[in-house]
Amino acid sequence: MSKVKQIWLIGFMGLVSATGPLSMDMYLPGLPQMQHYFGSSASMLQLSITFCLVGLAVGQLFIGPLSDHIGRRIPLMVGFALYGLTSLACVFAPNIWIFILLRLIQGLAGSTGQVLSRAVARDMFEGKELTRFYAMLMAVNGVFPIISPIIGGILLPFVHWEGIFILLFVIGVLTVIGIFFTIPETLPTVSRRDEPILNSFKSMLKMFSHRRFVLIALVQGLIFGALFSYISASSFVFQNYFHMTVGQFSFLYAINGLGIILGNNLPGYLTDYISNQRILMGALVVGLFASVLMVVSLFVNPMAILVIIPLFIVIFCVGIVNTVATSMAMGIEGRENGGSASAVLGLLMNIIGALASPIAGVMGAHSYAPMAILIFGCELSGLSLFYLANRVRRVTN
């Protein structure tokens, strides 16, 4: 593959994999405005994040095994077409319940991008090359948490929250066109499963018996739980509790997005010198330490800076864990199971994130304690499971 084609593939697949940030980060600055529009509570609006995450998780269970049979390209195009149409339908939601239902469908459609971007990479690369490609792919993906809230903050004064979902519709349509004209099929017919598709779902269920694979996937899922605790609560915590403006919040969110990019990139440079095991352990330990600082800040005078600094460290470590844990987990399974393995990763990430999102907003704008405590709990649990995964590795070897 030429350098130009590789750069295009990384950039475009970064967009394809960004359905999570696109679906949630862009409209975060508008949540207080939407709360007024729908006449709902903060926790109810956060359910729209939860249901989108549920859709992203459940959809991957079907798309992953299906793509192991029919290839990656057709499911990608169909998924993004539906994603665009559902985004447009959100504009016309008559009430909060219809909006939440549409967000569920949007998540189901958007799951194709998340699961198949990982599967495409697994089709094409192995070992250290796979880690490097994931590092670059996720670095591009990490741009979207930076620019999405900035775009949302810019659009809100002119087109209100509806304009954000119209933009998502346009992105969905353009992505379908880009896939059709520029992305080849990466899973050749000879590598596809030829048994009944029901057997693929059974094989995916068997992955849950692979203890090390499941433990690494759970580590990544728990760290994503910390991330989504931040995502779902941050707009209310910083705009309502710490009284930031939309512009200030968007800038802060962008800085944290930069932290994800830096974290995603770092393993690509370290993998020649440090094992993935050690990189992952280091990120988990540092993330846990930062979460402790955030909890401690609850017992002093409320100051935004005491939350902002440890939060940046946590988000930076999320980027590292995302790259390394994905590479390790996908490397455990064979290429013929790439879609199914990616589906299990996506399931655990999004289900844990979906559970964390409404809990983080349980106290609305009155405290950041739920967010801080949830992040600490996720970091501590992730590190504990990592040590258990190491014990399983030593026993099996």
TrEMBL record:
Keyword hit for ATP-binding: no
Membrane topology of this protein: Multi-pass membrane protein
Main location (coarse class): membrane
Family recorded in the similarity comment: Belongs to the major facilitator superfamily. Bcr/CmlA family.
Subcellular locations according to the entry: Cell membrane
Entry-linked CDD domains: MFS_MdfA_MDR_like
Annotated TM spans: 7-24, 44-64, 76-98, 104-121, 133-158, 164-183, 213-238, 250-267, 279-299, 305-329, 341-362, 368-389
GO molecular function, one term: xenobiotic transmembrane transporter activity
Domain Major facilitator superfamily (MFS) profile: 6-393
GO cellular component: plasma membrane
Species this protein is from: Pediococcus argentinicus
Protein known as: Bcr/CflA family efflux transporter
UniProt-listed GO biological process terms: xenobiotic detoxification by transmembrane export across the plasma membrane
Species classification: Bacteria, Bacillati, Bacillota, Bacilli, Lactobacillales
Keywords: Cell membrane, Membrane, Transmembrane, Transmembrane helix, Transport
UniProt cross-references to InterPro entries, sorted A to Z: Efflux_drug-R_Bcr/CmlA (IPR004812), MFS (IPR011701), MFS_dom (IPR020846), MFS_trans_sf (IPR036259), Sugar_transporter_CS (IPR005829)
NCBIfam families named among the record's database cross-references: efflux_Bcr_CflA (TIGR00710)
